[in-house]
Amino acid sequence: MDLLLDIEQRLGEPLQAFTDLLFVMDKHGAILDCRFGDPSMYSDSFEKTREKTIQDFLSSEAGDRLNFHLSQARQVGKAASFEFPLMMEGRELWFDARLVRSSDSRFILSARDITKYKRTEGRLKRQLQRINALRSIDFAIASGLDLNLLLSILLDRVIETMHVDAAAVLLLDPKLNELTFASGKGFHTNILQHTRLKTGQGYAGRVALDRRIINIADLTKNKTEFERSPLFPSEKFVVYYGAPLIAKGRVLGVLEIFHRSHLHPDEDWMDFLNIISGQTAIAIDSAMMFKELQKSNFELSMAYNATIDAWSRTLDLRDRDIEGHTRRVTDITLRFATLAGIKDSDLIHIRRGATLHDIGKVAIPDEILFKPGPLDQDEWETMRQHPKYAVDLLSPIKYLEHAMEIPHWHHEKWDGTGYPDRLGGEEIPFSARLFALVDVYDALTSDRPYRRAWSKQDAVQYIENQSGKHFDPRLVPEFLNLVSANGY
Predict the structure, then answer these.
(1) Burial of 43 (0-12, 13-18, 19+ CB in 10 A)
(2) Cβ–Cβ contacts within 10 Å for residue 191, how many?
(3) 394 with 359: CB under 8 angstroms?
(4) What are residue 166's DSSP bridge partners?
(5) What is the pLDDT of residues 235-253, one digit of tens each?
């Protein structure tokens, strides 16, 4: 009696659900008989199956898995279900299999073809991977990253999601009408790093000029533009794609893709190439805009600082006796602030505040400001108004909002006896407490119309004595260490 017919009669219904492949094997996996649900699908792939084991048709991973299940079935008679791929007539087919024990020496492997489901699953996985790639690019754009870092992230995503070997971005200089290399990943040599192409020149130049994707399916068949590079053959590239990078109607560059074996892109792959090239263009445009904005902000900041310095020089020119005081206290304050742990982003406000600390004195009458002797009570009341005058002068200027602390409160004292608001302790902003030490030390060690400069030793002694009275006691030791270390 036919071996399969005998088994089917005995097992019956369990085999009906798996009709695409059916093997009868011995305990080692040697094929005793087989049947195909649609023989035309598999041609003569298994013509000599009886001379082989089932493992001969499986990948090493699937073969190991089958051996494990055979061992389990031999020992405890346990049935097993698993999936495995087979290469048949140059195609990869997937099967969902069930292994059962028929007798002490025979086993049945029945399987159904699930290739279309696996392909759908693979397509969904690729789509999810591409969506995640686009999401990561969006995040990089939103983070305002440097263009080089942004391109590096982007090219990693291109290679990963499109399953290609190498990719590069060439940027278009609109003034020179020239494409130059900006970034590349996956290359063994530096073949593209010196690229300079006019629009219309070479594959990338044609892509930029025509605004359309160009594909060279086999770079090995005919002469190509890359033969001008002696290093190109060592890369062993077979396939080339060039896609224009267009944002807001402008060509910004070209995305180049290389692969070292033949590609068989489907519609999804081509659609994603269009999407990723569009996203790349947006990323480049955003990075360039951010760079221009940074440049504009830097230039604006420099203009602000130049204006502030001019105001300070105006005050110094008015009062020749304190000329250089502002520059000195600004330099020392910035160094002190850095040592005190103030963030770099806040140092600009410290600099501006220190530079403008006495700007309110422009409103003080000359006869008081330049009086060679001590001021009387009324004159002192007028002089003590200069912090408020500074606030009146500077508060309408928005960009100086965070620089107001020093001009406003640098004459406040730790014990609350200062002016203009009699703040005490930590009520006084940190920057003003810090600046007060620098300002008083420089004033004491400089000549004034009504007295000679103190010695550094006397100035240090005074500051030590005023710790906890005029000055923040936690800042005094740090400031005196700075003075000693730098010879101020």
Answers:
(1) exposed
(2) 23
(3) yes
(4) 258
(5) 999 999 999 999 888 999 9
